[in-house]
Amino acid sequence: MMALPFLESAMPKLLASDATPALATPGLTPSGAPLRVAYVYVPNGANMADWTPAAEGANFEMPLILDPLKSMRSQWSVLSGLTQRPGDAGPDGAGDHARALATYLTSTRIRKTQGADIKAGISVDQAIANRVGLYTRFPSLELGCDRAQLSGNCDSGYSCAYSFNISWKSDATPMPPEVDPKQAFERLFSNGDPKESKEVRERRMQNRQSILDYVLDDAKRLQNRLGRNDQRKLDEYMTAVRDIEHRIDMAYQNNLEIADSAKPAGIPRNAEGKIDYSAHVRLMFDLMALAFRTDTTRVATFMMRHDGNNDAYPQIGVREGHHDLSHHGDDPVKMKKIAQINQYHMEQFAYFLKVLGETKEGTGTLLDNCMVMYGSGLADGNAHSHHNLPVLLAGKGGGLIDQGRHIKFRHDTPVSNLYLTMMQRMGVKAERFGDSTGILTGLGSMA
Fold first, then answer.
1. If 397 and its partner were Cys, which of 196, 317, 339, 401 is the partner (CB 3.0–4.6 Å)?
2. For residue 231, what is the enclosing H or E element?
3. Are residues 57 and 126 in the same domain?
4. Are residues 307 and 173 in the same domain?
5. 226-268, pLDDT tens digit by residue?
6. What is the mean pLDDT of the chain?
7. What is the sign of the dihedral through the CA atoms of 57, 63, 65 and 68?
């Protein structure tokens, strides 16, 4: 069994009982297509001078870090002035990286503990999933590139559960991200029977068959009953699935030849056996796009790295650790390298937006029917500031968000106001979230 993309011929028949009937069903755009929401996290803040546009409105000069998005500037906006006050040190002292990540989507002050008595709050993605998750196979999808840790001391007395999990089902239940694209793929396309899924996987690996081969005849019969647009969409979708499966399979075969069996299979590696981070990130973005495309889920999070991550990026000429560089002490050389890392991460995000923007859906694109937030729980990593965060919002939210702008909100506006706005747009009946003080105005007709 395999999920299908959203097809126009399957568009729900909505009762015209009011001016905007689609809004009566949670998780739908005014046209009746599914509305999706995603939250993408990058670590250690940003070099804010190279992030923030100098001018407000639509006619701003593209900053260095955002340059990879310049060809799509009508599809996203920079939101300045947003703050995560629960991330501030207060009486708890050190541990800003743990607080940055654990409060980012919860907007709730976390309990400082390295024991089992962790306490955060439900994250915005899970609050939305509780409302719209009933309509999809998976209420939400959690992806990452750093395998989650759930115990131990990872940051100045804070449990590792805070430092490696961005999504929280409840105040004591983190949702660990899947980091192995092979496992994520199998989860999305298995039939839910663990025993049978294992047999199918083994047979496919033995015969070198694609999962599409098992459903190809049914797909051909289905195509004969579809309109021209849906026929094209189904063909493009199956091609995309086959491409992703091939890339994951190649990564898996490569891993079989690497002696280090402790590393999870399916994560792309180079000839030396080292993880190919760019390929890994893009595979995860492709899987997220595929999950949205098939309406397998409408809610996703992706942690590109955990906060405090100290990996180097030799692929772009940066051999120092990211976290070490973030403590730049106003050294212009280090700040330039931070901006390089920030821009590199943005290049990967631009790839994701391009995939969404090239996927047709109805009279528009998949990106048109998404709200995708990209950002970090720190602003300047050197100061460990949680104020004026680097936040970008992409997608037109079903036509209700006016994009292509730099929107500057009042200083110290809670980022939870954005979350509350997105929650309400997704059909969640809530008046508050975290430390919110109201919804954001100025985003378009959604607010």
1. 401
2. helix 228-256
3. yes
4. yes
5. 887 788 778 877 777 777 777 777 665 555 444 344 333 589 9
6. 87
7. positive
